[in-house]
Amino acid sequence: MNPVYLAYESFHAAVLGPRIAASAARQALDVAGGRMAALPQVRAFSAGLEMFERLTRRYAKPRFNITSTTFDGHSVEVVERVRWSRPFCNVIRFERSLPAGAGDQPKLLIVAPMSGHHATLVRGTVKAFLPTHDVYITDWADASTVPVSAGTFGLDDYVDYVRDIMTELAPDLHVMAICQPAVPVFAAVSLMEQDRDPKVPVSMTLIGGPIDTRNSPTQVNALAVGKGIDWFRQNCIAEVPWNHEGAGRRVYPGILQLNAFMSMNAERHASAHAEMFSNLASGNEVVAQKQKDFYDEYLAVSDLPEEFYLETVERVFVRHDLPLGRLEHRGRPVDPSAIRRVALMTIEGENDDITGLGQTEAAHALCPNVPTDRKLHYVQEGVGHYGLFSGSRFRNEIVPKVVEFMNR
To answer: Is the pTM of this model over 0.70?
Structure first.
């Protein structure tokens, strides 16, 4: 059993006192600093205290904090409401206060990744579609907060959740899967088409998803194939300790996923923290706050259920069950060729180092019975993985194409 949780808890217990002291000292400087607070030495000392506190804290689950959007050129209020709930997921609706007579807009279900971060990581995606759609998002639970009594949660359960949610929100629903959920969403839609379910979504948009990881394999894909499932089972699973609601549950700790992603770009993250310290020390609060906001989100991690993690690694990344026609759901073959009514759009990033070019596009070859005029593949130039669902190029170039496709 991986000792990472024990080490993680021990570290935070050891630094609790110094972290509290550093935070108190920095607050005292802010209150009593006066003219001294403007001195370069004092600013640098305060910045050092803040960096120490940030590097040793636990990052809580962020909030969406989306309170307004635009509609027909005017600002309207947005309220979050839970529309659907199960032990491992809530579906949040971003309910807008539209004017009387506004009419219904298309419904969009954003299936956020269950990959170590919270759904708030795709906050920018929600904001981008709120002016044009009635937006819902899957808010997956941190497995460390789900009691063992709630049962297990594997890849088949994920597919069931997605299908149940789409059924609940039908009709006239568009579904968008960002990264990891591309496979279970694709499977759920395939099963609905196999059953001739009248509640299938109108369209399915897959963004940077691992449909066929044999294409342009990345460092992430090579690790999965090279290590094999037994290595992941022996080295990546830990038991949730007693001081969490999910005590005793076996999980893939989010901190391991975070360390893996950060190690892929270690120099960039080290440089970003050095820049943050420099901005704090020089009084450049505006830029420093943007950097802090990013890392408040990025460093907030979520544990994954053991079953879901290991089954995803094995069936998606090691065995390639979906593209090889071997994917099953509870013993039943999943047949993407059954998809006929659901329009399909796939989006990839030119510089994506997590999901290589061609991996998401592979969905089109698996859906030969979707009419050509109801298919679209788009490669966004100049963006990596996160630029596929956030940032200026996402807002200005990707979103208009998705909206046009869904409307068409």
So the answer is: yes
